[in-house]
## 1
Amino acid sequence: MFRNNYDNDSVTFSPQGRIFQVEYAAEAVKQGSVVVGIASKTHVVLVAIKRNAEELSSYQKKLFQIDEHVGIAIAGLTSDARVLSNFMKQQCLGHRLTYGRNMPVRSLVDMIGSKAQINTQHYGKRPYGVGLLVAGADENGPHLFEFQPSGMTEEMVAFAIGARSQMARTYLEKNLDAFADCGREELVRHGLKALKESLVQDKELTVENTSVAIVGVAKAKDGTTKMEPFKVFDGQDVNAWIGGAADDKEAAAAEGMDVDDA
Amino acid sequence: MFRNNYDNDSVTFSPQGRIFQVEYAAEAVKQGSVVVGIASKTHVVLVAIKRNAEELSSYQKKLFQIDEHVGIAIAGLTSDARVLSNFMKQQCLGHRLTYGRNMPVRSLVDMIGSKAQINTQHYGKRPYGVGLLVAGADENGPHLFEFQPSGMTEEMVAFAIGARSQMARTYLEKNLDAFADCGREELVRHGLKALKESLVQDKELTVENTSVAIVGVAKAKDGTTKMEPFKVFDGQDVNAWIGGAADDKEAAAAEGMDVDDA
Amino acid sequence: MFRNNYDNDSVTFSPQGRIFQVEYAAEAVKQGSVVVGIASKTHVVLVAIKRNAEELSSYQKKLFQIDEHVGIAIAGLTSDARVLSNFMKQQCLGHRLTYGRNMPVRSLVDMIGSKAQINTQHYGKRPYGVGLLVAGADENGPHLFEFQPSGMTEEMVAFAIGARSQMARTYLEKNLDAFADCGREELVRHGLKALKESLVQDKELTVENTSVAIVGVAKAKDGTTKMEPFKVFDGQDVNAWIGGAADDKEAAAAEGMDVDDA
Amino acid sequence: MFRNNYDNDSVTFSPQGRIFQVEYAAEAVKQGSVVVGIASKTHVVLVAIKRNAEELSSYQKKLFQIDEHVGIAIAGLTSDARVLSNFMKQQCLGHRLTYGRNMPVRSLVDMIGSKAQINTQHYGKRPYGVGLLVAGADENGPHLFEFQPSGMTEEMVAFAIGARSQMARTYLEKNLDAFADCGREELVRHGLKALKESLVQDKELTVENTSVAIVGVAKAKDGTTKMEPFKVFDGQDVNAWIGGAADDKEAAAAEGMDVDDA
Amino acid sequence: MFRNNYDNDSVTFSPQGRIFQVEYAAEAVKQGSVVVGIASKTHVVLVAIKRNAEELSSYQKKLFQIDEHVGIAIAGLTSDARVLSNFMKQQCLGHRLTYGRNMPVRSLVDMIGSKAQINTQHYGKRPYGVGLLVAGADENGPHLFEFQPSGMTEEMVAFAIGARSQMARTYLEKNLDAFADCGREELVRHGLKALKESLVQDKELTVENTSVAIVGVAKAKDGTTKMEPFKVFDGQDVNAWIGGAADDKEAAAAEGMDVDDA
Amino acid sequence: MFRNNYDNDSVTFSPQGRIFQVEYAAEAVKQGSVVVGIASKTHVVLVAIKRNAEELSSYQKKLFQIDEHVGIAIAGLTSDARVLSNFMKQQCLGHRLTYGRNMPVRSLVDMIGSKAQINTQHYGKRPYGVGLLVAGADENGPHLFEFQPSGMTEEMVAFAIGARSQMARTYLEKNLDAFADCGREELVRHGLKALKESLVQDKELTVENTSVAIVGVAKAKDGTTKMEPFKVFDGQDVNAWIGGAADDKEAAAAEGMDVDDA
Amino acid sequence: MFRNNYDNDSVTFSPQGRIFQVEYAAEAVKQGSVVVGIASKTHVVLVAIKRNAEELSSYQKKLFQIDEHVGIAIAGLTSDARVLSNFMKQQCLGHRLTYGRNMPVRSLVDMIGSKAQINTQHYGKRPYGVGLLVAGADENGPHLFEFQPSGMTEEMVAFAIGARSQMARTYLEKNLDAFADCGREELVRHGLKALKESLVQDKELTVENTSVAIVGVAKAKDGTTKMEPFKVFDGQDVNAWIGGAADDKEAAAAEGMDVDDA
């Protein structure tokens, strides 16, 4: 309960040039359940652990589709995430109405970064208490971005945010070189392994508590490019991955796409 | 009377990333009298205990109809509930005027969630000091949502909020698997049993202190679907349920609908 | 002079979820002189004790007509009451201009409730420091509502607010069952008896310090319904009631209406 | 220099439901020099003691004409009084332009009451630090109102505000019954006697330090009604009253009106 | 360095009904160099001591022409004076453009009084830290007004504000009766004598540190009235007055006006 | 680190009538490097020492041209100076566009004075932390003004502001009588001598650290008047003056003007 | 954790005339990784060390292109840099649309300086917590500017900002005279050497952690001038420079320009 000075609002620098309220907002991210994202040359996957705060709820969503080509994983304040999510949906919709094509992922990420920065520089607001992993695919290929409450956004090869996410990040760093050439299924399995690292002891991944989302740009057999739209998998849909025996090719076929990444 | 730091307003994070004012608002919900909601495949019921704060009042309402297809149960600050209730009525009305059909329950819930989140991120306002259970039925079937002062909204199978609601939640969790296939009358009886768990010792459910509300989508004998509009039952109308001997079929017939859920 | 924390403004919750400023505003109501209201099936009466703060004033009003069919009794800050009173007059006027009939009493009460709630949720304002009893008659019959600084409004059978009003409420609770079928004159006498309970020792009701107001919907002998408009009685007009020997029928006749409630 | 809590601004209630800043503003009224007002059936008089703060000033006004039919006596902050005075002048002017007749005195008083109440309920303003006695005559006869910083306004038979005004009020209460039938001149003399009661020892009323204002509705000999416009008397014009031997009829004649009140 | 309570801003009354910030602003006036004003039946003169804060400055103005018929002497914050001065110039100009004649001096003074009062009743501003003597001549003859930071304005026969101005006021009070019939030159000499009283020991009036301003309405020999416009005299122009031997008639003639006041 | 009271913002007077924040802003001026200005009957010169805060910067400007006929020397916060400088440029440009001639220097100075005063009387801003010497020439001849953070502006014969400027001012005061009739070159040399007085020991004026600016109105041989536009001299252009052997006539000729002031 | 006074916001001067919040913002710059800029007569180069805060990120950008002819290096808060960067891009775009040519570098720098100054003089904002080196080329040749959080901007020959940048600045000062005539490649090598000085022990420049940007105006063999647009080099593109054996002429040729600066 000790009161640190210079930490009352986000328009006050500490003598060391720090903005404590922004750092505290980052703590809110660490209290959300962990989410993991990994990008290969063709796909981005997001995997998340759904916290069973209330046994009575049908499900607690961690992964959200924003647009056909992009989605997010959230860690932190759910209500803040909804604000950003709605904002992103509007931006994507507006972009398509105006330009007739999907909004580039980087542009979208830049817009929420700028929006979030405002809350770190004006009195009477607070930073968003949520971190995001943004997974998308555009004409430049698949992208994975991290968004922080400070408004900072960075493109990542793989990343994890939320409670105990450091363990997941350690796994990701060890396997960093492998991701670029992973297939869709392999990526998911890497993600789930990373996710497992962050679980508290005796906890297991189950069809109830695990979510997976995939977006991709896959080269078809005839050489043309096909997008695999962002899709969230819950419940029995994640069973095969948790069981660990899915066949990449078959799974992809089930999505109606031929892949040659294996 | 100890002054916690970082808890003066809802635009200040604590060093642990918490927003105390939002948590304190949640305490206001806990001081309201308990309300219980349960959803089956065909119906959602809300049951509430009416606190007799003033013997002289005609009645103190806990359940409110928002629109033909949706209603709420409230726990917390009644005045704040009215603001949200009025807002919801306007949204439903506006939606029907614009689109010619009932507003989907999830959309409605999302709107109050977003509205409430604003009060947790702007200086000079306070979070709403009220929790809601939103019961509705739309083309996707019946829905039960919880709304919290933080702006968080979650779809639930069954839930209870308000004073001593934990006991009701324990009952609900134990019987969770039974609800999906319950008939209309059975749901009400489950709700009343859960409600009883939260009563202080020596207190009984009576026609004076008990409210019930029901909304449903029932399959008629000819195979078509009929909506049972949201309706609140007070006083003698709840006598049969409290007495415990109502016959599902008869009761439903009294509502002018044939049901095949028994 | 002890400074409670969390009680500086109405946008701060205490850790227990209370809004102290709203509770303090309720204390202002308790410092106003007592007013009593009772509703029967045909009438609502308001009775008030006029505090002789200044011997030199012509009179200090406690009962105010808002519209033909509705009036209020106030306890608390007179200046705040005027703001609400002016607001109510405008609403009633606007309603009649727009719809060609009297505003339903409940709608009117809802509007001041919503107006007052705003002052409990925005920084830089304070709650209204006044409580109201609203007495009115509309096509649904006579109504008595209580309005509190929190914005809460509740329909009551009978109620009293202001200094020492608990004694009056005790009287009202004891006689609660009798009110519904009371005649106009009997209601007034009940009100005055309740009022007397709240007087400090050695103080008596007099024509100088007592006000009475009546509004009603009375069934005439030919079976049609006639409204008795809201009217305030002061000075010699209250003499008969204080003396205690008024004859209901005569008094009603004096108002130009036949009543069959005796 | 002790700091009371809850007394920093006018939007904070104390735990007892008091608004200290409004009470402090009332203290500013008590520091102004005393003014007295008395109403009879035909006239209202205001008398005031002019404080000789600066020997070098031509005169320090205490009584001000607002409109032909109404004027004020002030006690407290002169600058605040000017704001209210200008506001009242505009209201009267606007009323006459719109309706072609003088503004009713009560309406005028209600408007400054409402204007002043705003400053007791919004942050960033302060209550007006001035009290007024408003004397006017309209078709309902002569009126005397008191205005307080809280925005409260009350019609009075006779009243005094300002420094040591309690002594004047005691005089007024003793003679309260006499005022209604007093003639114009007699009223002034009562006012001056009350004023004298509030003077500090050894101080006398003189033509330099005494102001008198009169407004009236006088019945003429032929039975018609004539208004005596609000007029302020200073210097030698008040000599006769201070001397004490003025003849009512002569004085009235000097004003060009026949009066039958003697 | 003791912190008085209730003195942080001008929207807070002390428990005694004082507004300390307004009183502190009056202290700023006392720190300006002294200015003196005297009015006769035909003229108003302003005399001022120019403080030689900086030897290098060409001159430091204390007297300013506002319009042909009016000017001011200032004591306090020069920058605040400029704001008021510019405001007055605009008002005078606007009045002449609208009405085709000079603005009455009292109207002008009322406007700055009202403008200044606003700063004593709204949060986020501060009172003007400057006092003014306003000297003007209109169809009602010559006028001298004092303006205070509180917004109070008062017409004076003679007055002095600024550092050590009490000594000058004592001189003025002693000679008060003489001023009304003084001629133009005699008035100036009285003003300079009063000014001398306020000088610190060993300091003398010189052509460098003395300013004189005169405005008047003089009766010409042929009986018509002529205005002597407001004019400031500095440097060698004040030599004759300081020397003490100026002849009224000659001086006036130099201004091109015949005067019969000697 | 002792906290003075009453010094938190510029809308609070101290009990002595001081505005500490304005005084503190004046301290910022004293931390800027020294600048000197001197006016003669025909020219104004500004000389400045350029602080070598960073060896790596090309140059640090102290003198700025505002318009053809006017320029400034700054001491204090460079960023604040830019705001004022841009404002002045816009004013000059706007004046010429509107009136077809150069803005009078005094008008320009009045405008920045008024602009700066606003920041001393409104909450939420701070005074400008910069002092200016404004040198200009208009149809009334050459002018030198000082501008202070308080908004005060004063015309000067010669002045110096910034660090250790008191020593320069002492030199200027000693030579004050000589300046009026100085020629252009002589003025510069006086300025440089004054500047030298303010240098810390062992520091010398060099072509790297010295700036000179000149603006003038010179009478040509044929009797007509020619303006010498404001021009800043840096680097080798100031060598002759620092060396001390410049010939007035030659230098002027180099500027293309004949001067007869030698 | 000691609380310095006067350092809560950027609208409060300390008694010494300092604005601590601006100084604290400058500390944020010192916590960014170091960037170096050097200008010759023909080129400006920026070199930066990319901090590997997260191993998993694809890259962390320090150098950004603003427009064809200008770019920036940043040190401090990345989110703040984005705001300024977006602003600069818009300005450049708007300038070209309006005037049909590139915005002069100094104008662009002035605009961000003015924009940043606002945040140091208005309550409720904070200074930008980022420093910039702006490198550009326009018709006046190549330019290097430093931008500070205070809004101060200065043209530099060479400079370094960020963590441990003092060591880099020392290198730059020692070699200051050499830069003007350096060729493009030589400039880069000087920049990298300066950068190395600021590295913590045992850390090396690598293709992963080093960024280089170049903009230039090069004279072609035929005597005409050609601009080398601002371009950022990362990864393998910087290998030659780090290896240290690049040939100026060849490298330039690779850019498609002939240079004669060797």
## 2
Amino acid sequence: MIHSFLLVGQSNMAGRGFLKDVPMICNERIKVLRNGRWQIMMEPINYDRAFAGVGPSASFAAAWCRKNEDKEIGLVPCAEGGTSLDAWSVEGPLFEHAILQAKLAKRSSKLEGILWHQGENECSSGLSKLYHEKFLKIVEAFRRELCEPDIPIIIGGIGNYLGSGFLGHYFPEHSEVNQELLEFAKKEKNCYFATALGLTSNPDGIHLNAVSQRIFGLRYFEAYDKRKHILEPLEGEENAINIDSERPLTKAEKTAILEKQFAGGEISLEEYQSQLMS
Amino acid sequence: MIHSFLLVGQSNMAGRGFLKDVPMICNERIKVLRNGRWQIMMEPINYDRAFAGVGPSASFAAAWCRKNEDKEIGLVPCAEGGTSLDAWSVEGPLFEHAILQAKLAKRSSKLEGILWHQGENECSSGLSKLYHEKFLKIVEAFRRELCEPDIPIIIGGIGNYLGSGFLGHYFPEHSEVNQELLEFAKKEKNCYFATALGLTSNPDGIHLNAVSQRIFGLRYFEAYDKRKHILEPLEGEENAINIDSERPLTKAEKTAILEKQFAGGEISLEEYQSQLMS
């Protein structure tokens, strides 16, 4: 039985870290739901845009696999870049789509948690003050619609870098949003906070870079696994980019990577065939 | 109102043509459904694998836009590589997922057609003989579940190259499957066939290459638009790769392309900003 996690929120849950900046994670025990079926995960996981990249869920899943030997984890990607809490309201298509995907996933997995990252769109016009009320409706609706009244929800903080950068003026309330996210996690049942403290961004000053996303995934996992708020960087988290890269690849993993390289036009037929044999 | 088309079948509908081999199609009148919402289409459209590439639907949509000035088309990608007709049976997750996506699309669009490409998985063990019966159940179920009893279904032929190539021995019945697809389209109401005659493949000998997919999309469109079977290459189809590349880009299209390049790490902040201004 696959143990599945629903990925929801905006672009930093979908992932915009550059794939080229970190070692690939390919682990046959990490699956992703596509078209209602599970397949071996390859990044980008949450393809909301043609430029989707590294999010927190790959290293989250790799950390989960280290803890849960011989078990399988499944990721259900439903995050959508640029979306506000209002866009996630329970009457809207994002919420409905996520519920449909999670229900499809539940047919062949046990839904174990929800990973949420959203807040950049609430950083101005007094929206931060409305976060708790709006988000509570969404959380309650997820739990109700999925018949999972106690499912853990892991809530990531937003980047402390948001006030700077060339678009920094869009985020005057970023500290307030972070405070709201933490208070929400503290107050509501089975919600846990993972801080973004010290994480850094792409040149856009908005999106977490790939190395930071690998670290963030470990913080999400620690919050989930220990059922506690993660308020400080983790000890040893600077090695996050190697979370799964020092493990020898299995035959299925080598084959999946070769298939990706060949079907994607990166290697020739001759290279593909000779490497398949080796 | 967006005019939408459901994309179903296996890998050659999803698309495995190499993106680098053809000019990009970016047209603000072509949308794609992601997470229940419409966004400007960027290839790859049907992200069933991390190596998804060019399929027939981009040039289909570009041809549709040429014919339907000032109207918008929406693509609903649900094809999944490596899938058999049995995997598409109406009790399975692929069918259910496609129905859910099409229903989400129908909330904000008019569903105008279904584009189908499948058959490589039926090319051995006598499966070709069962094609008609199995596919008819799927077609009837699509029309029934979507309350679209007369919706046109465009059925592409499979590659004549399938018998050759290093995996050619997997496809002994490829001619029989092609015959079944054509006969199906001729016999069943509002079904139209688009031949793959003369189209060529990637080095794998299985997947249509990018140039052929651009041509194939035009054939699909001709079959849809004229409501007739396309049994021969189209006149002038060799220019298919330029179907949308000679049209000047709009501001929205230029911005979308720049965002993709910047958010994907292809251009620097300085380049992005200077090009945004220009």
## 3
Amino acid sequence: MKMSGGVEWALHCCVVLTAARQPVPAVRLAELHDVSASYLAKQLQGLSRAGLVQSVQGQSGGYLLTRAPELITVLDVVEAVDGPRPAFVCTEIRQRGPLATPAESCLVPCAISRAMTAADAAWRAALRAVTIADLARDVTSDYGPDTFAGIRGWLAAADGHA
Amino acid sequence: MKMSGGVEWALHCCVVLTAARQPVPAVRLAELHDVSASYLAKQLQGLSRAGLVQSVQGQSGGYLLTRAPELITVLDVVEAVDGPRPAFVCTEIRQRGPLATPAESCLVPCAISRAMTAADAAWRAALRAVTIADLARDVTSDYGPDTFAGIRGWLAAADGHA
């Protein structure tokens, strides 16, 4: 099973955007993360489509979170970039072959599908339990109280607001 | 995020093998599931490498579960076919760019990686909580008490034991 690598970049961008006082251009987020701007733009478009960030147009334009980081979960970001579909797709194998179960007897998902759905729900619940604000708090706790001030300073310097 | 489609076939095979009194040839499992034998053989090889099924050689050879279905979890089968690696791979983005965290300060995984690892653990715990015996019981409960007798009869007919 594999998740899009874009999820990791998108989560880092959201955490960084908690420090932003002004819209942050995509190219600046790319520079901060040392990744190609076009690759990051794709992830930011995913976040924008999902309503997690907004793109502000104009000379001092860029990206901002659309709401408080307490209200954006890790699951929101994962689904924005990687899609909302479960990893397991039931192809109704029970309806195939010489002992096929007739379609009219397949009103509930099969036992295998149910087990997979329950695991998927547990995974999503765990991702829903963590917000971008939690991640930002963990970052401060990991690297010290000045971490976000440093990021804010770097972003402002680029804006000419240093 | 996407899981190998082989997981679904492998789980169906394991459930069917709980009904087997004799080794079941791969080609017979493929016929029962109406899928190409070469495709199914690949999944069975994965199960065999993981020690979940054994291949019995000879004229009445085929596949058998290596242990009681109570002792084979859905997670065992998922990992046998899809590999044991988590869907999320941390690429240490924090060590990149102008504000990079020095490698020597990255002794514990970053907050994003920790959140993903916790969700992965919840997913695996849910899959570990369900055994092949549970699935077989659910199948009986869904389709009636004669379901496995029917499968056993079909498998035995092929063996010439009907």
## 4
Amino acid sequence: MTDGFDFRILNRDGLARRGELTTPHGVVQTPAFMPVGTRGAVKSITQRDLEDLDAEIILGNTYHLYLKPGDGLIARCGGLHRFIGWNRPILTDSGGYQVYSLAAMRRIHEEGAEFRSHIDGSLHMLTPERAADIQAQLGSDIAMVLDECVASPAGPEPAREAMERSVRWARRARTRHLQLRHDPASAPDVAVTNPGQAQFGIVQGGISPGLRTESVQATVELAFEAYAIGGLSVGEPVDVMYEVVAHTAPLLPDGRPRYLMGTGMPDDLFECVAHGVDLFDCVLPTRNARNGQLLTRRGPLVIKNARYAEDVSPPDPECSCYTCRHFSRAYLRHLFIAGEMTAATLNSLHNLHFYLDTMRRIREAIVFGSFEKLRQEFRQTFSRRPQY
Amino acid sequence: MTDGFDFRILNRDGLARRGELTTPHGVVQTPAFMPVGTRGAVKSITQRDLEDLDAEIILGNTYHLYLKPGDGLIARCGGLHRFIGWNRPILTDSGGYQVYSLAAMRRIHEEGAEFRSHIDGSLHMLTPERAADIQAQLGSDIAMVLDECVASPAGPEPAREAMERSVRWARRARTRHLQLRHDPASAPDVAVTNPGQAQFGIVQGGISPGLRTESVQATVELAFEAYAIGGLSVGEPVDVMYEVVAHTAPLLPDGRPRYLMGTGMPDDLFECVAHGVDLFDCVLPTRNARNGQLLTRRGPLVIKNARYAEDVSPPDPECSCYTCRHFSRAYLRHLFIAGEMTAATLNSLHNLHFYLDTMRRIREAIVFGSFEKLRQEFRQTFSRRPQY
């Protein structure tokens, strides 16, 4: 553990855990949802909005920040926290997922992932060491190891190969991270902007329980501060995702936070907390907001629908967010159809409030031993199909 | 005067006036700048931001709101204030300027302005009566009469014709407005959503002092609640604009607010307050913000410039706005170049703060009899050319 990093479990309810994650930039109440601040900004809202929403941690994308404005520039500006004016915890991913999903070209070598920038086609090589260096320069509170993502469904062989390579990469990433932590002078080209940075390993293995078990064992051996479940929400059916989480999460060290990467819909949060997951991130609340979809306890509301043209009721009558307290469906529909940027802002404020409020309710329920009841309630009222 | 409308001059300093404008939705301290909420939203910021900025009045564009979502819909939703969730004063223009500047086709008849929508090419007829009806349905606190705008430079004949037609239109607009105010039952098709709405006349006459004098006399005869100077900031040199304002403003009734439409740059505010103008509106602070131009006491700062890439100082070290208190030039440059919507938001918050703060300083200076000193100071430090 780094000096600044700690995790305490305060309450349990079944496999669900109510915890407190300490980082160099403050404490995160878990289970927690991390809004995604792709390029140093959560799209269409400001840092002040995030504070008002009581977001305790956000995620930054290493791939994007590395390409623009560059980790060197951010380090010279004092690290990511100072650069973006956000003093609470930040987790950065390794860049591996965006190399897989965004890059113009990707070639996996044992050395690392070679790719071309989606912006200008320039050629780059992301190695486990380089991913650790970039994140050290960004100075996030939690860095992730570089892993190899494969599309779903992947056959057993590609899944095994990617899992095994991810383990080898994780070992190299850990070595480099510990070198930067304990002997920064040995890497004079890397400006470590947050000496208390923790590093999480990532479990891969596709949808195979056997591969997942192997991956857990090999990754936990490397003694990271904590562990993530990667390679899910990449196209597999949701029930399969739940099964993999149900299998994998309990194998991870009980006393360390568990992070399910890139998930998901609101009902996913309940199902995966039930299996012992502590951290989530997803672009869904902000991306869907920009596409005019508002999420509520009953399900999605598609704001452009003609039936809302003169509907003066709030988007979600049960919601206490700024948007729902002040604006009508008719107004939000007008803004969305007119293409006003404010539509994205107001919808994002609502969706993030909904996610963060859902996590608050989950944490409270765990404390009171009523998580299972809340989960059943949510299941009965929430549908993924537009409900309004 | 309507019941809800009043104007009191509290202090004078030369021709500059420090006043208080009372409307059905509250009081506006003048001289005042009105942020432009084109389609029911000030672009890229929220109503909460406007309240935090202490904007006391905003402007809505009748042309845009009439086309989308329609004044009928807004009336059925309770009027513009309720529709957009803004409880402070609103001024609406007549739509004439956008018909002149935006419409796909425009033909001026004595009856009114025939035009095609810039959105779908549909054919519309905006008459003085219709413009009054639309604004009655919107329920703004201040409605403007329909006038005919001409490009600058216009020859003496087109300028005279447009001025004289504007006077005839103003008479019809006033008649219709008073009918709606005193006998709404006689116009059952029009839903008057703000019975306390005031109506301002508009002085035209291009850059000819003689025409301006004639226009003032004929318009003031119609006994509006107050008067605007229209047809400026349409391409004429800024000195000519100042001359027309210097000539026209003092001709207007002393006890009524004077509104200079569509102006302008920060130095324009000082020059025109000096001639007795009380109200301003302009898209410049928000539009330039979206284009990456931040306005300061020294002049514009073009945020995309390479020299700001690693500049950790605030955009304007003298400014106390949210943006300048929390973010660096380097971060704002990154957001702008990355195309993040948050760039528009943060830049707009700064520019609007700068305009509204400038008006606060102007009001204070008038109270203390030091307006001329402030104006000279501003002149010496402010340049329209990028200063950073």
